[in-house]
Amino acid sequence: MNLADLNKIALAMVAPGKGILAADESSGTIKKRFDAINVESTEQSRRDYREMLFRSGEAMRQYISGVILYDETIWQDAADGTPLVRLIEQSGAIPGIKVDEGTQALPGCPGELVTSGLDRLAERLKKYYERGARFAKWRAVIDIGEHLPSMTAIHVNAHALARYAALCQAAQIVPIVEPEVLMDGSHDIDRCYDVTQRVLNKTFQELRVQRVALEGMILKPNMVISGKKNAKQASVEEVAEKTIRMLKACVPAAVPGIAFLSGGQSDEDASAHLSAMNGIGNLPWQLTFSYGRALQAAPQKAWSGKAENVVAGQRAFTHRARMNSLASRGEWKADLEKKAA
Ligand code: 5MM
Description:
Strand order of the largest sheet: 1-2-3-6-7-8-9-10
CATH architecture: Alpha-Beta Barrel
Number of strands: 10
Bound molecules: 2-O-methyl-1,6-di-O-phosphono-D-mannitol
Helix content: 40-55%
Structural class: alpha/beta
Distance between the termini: 47 Å
CATH topology: TIM Barrel
C-alpha cells in the first residue's frame, strides 16, 4: 500500500467546492427510479441516462470530484464507443465503484441486515483498478426500531466495512466507508444521534483493529436527523449542530473527509443541512456531499427518458451540483434555488 498516494486521492475526492455523485444504483434500485418517470429500465436506457450525467460539462468539471459507478456501468461504452469511465476521467473527476453485493437477512436478528460481497473481493478490486477505479464504496444499512439495532448488527456490519476497507487499501483503492443509519422510522433526532454514535464508534474500532489507514479513506455517514415519520422535525440548525457534535466525538481528525449521503431528504434540505454544517466552521475534516437521490431526482424528472430532454436534464443536474458545491463551502442560500426556478 502506498499511503501517500491513497491520501492524495482521498483529498481530491473532497477537494474544496466539490463532492461525489453516487450513481451506483443497482439494477433493482434504478428500475424503481425509472418506474417513477415512466422509463423502461434497459441496458441502453441506463447507459443513456448515465451518459447524460457524465457529459454535463460544467457540473462534472466544476462541482463533481468523483462518481460512484455500478458494476454494469463501469464496463459500458457511451453511444460513440467511448468507455463511460473515460468520459468521467476526461472531465477531471475520479471514477469509483460500488463493490458491495447488497444486503441479506442477518441470522438470529429478525428485521436486520448484513452487507455481503467480501468473497473474491481482492480479485474484483484488481479488475476495477485496471479499468480505472481509484476509489470504492461499501454500504452497511442499520435500521432504528423499538428494539433495533442490535449490538450484533452493529458489530457484524462494522467488521465487514473494515474487512472491505483493508482489502481496498491493499489494492491501492481508497475505500468510502458508508455505515448508513436509515431515516425511515418514527424516532426523534436524539435517538438518531445515539444510534449513529454507537455505529461510528464500533466502525472506527474495527477499522483500527484491521489496520486501515485513516488518512487513506473517506467516511460516508448519515446526518443526525429526525426519523421521516416523526411529527416533530428538527430544524436545520439543530441537525447541523448535533451532526457536527456527534462527528467530532467519533471521527478522528486523520480522516481527510466526510461525504454525506442524502438518505431520502428533499433536495433543498440536503443542501441546507450541509451548508449549515460548513457554516459552523473550524472542522478537522473536509465536509461535502456524496448524494444519490438529492443530485439525481431533478435531472431524472427533467430527462424522463427523452433524447430531446437531455439538455434540460443536464441543466437540472448542474443546478443541484452547484447548490451542493455552495453548501460544501457553507454558502448555499434558499433564494438561490428560487432564482434558478
Ligand atoms: C445511489 O444509491 C446507491 C445505491 O443503492 P442500492 O445499492 O440500494 O441500489 C446508494 O448506496 C447510495 O450511494 C447511498 O445510499 C447514498 O444515496 P442517497 O440517495 O441516500 O444520497
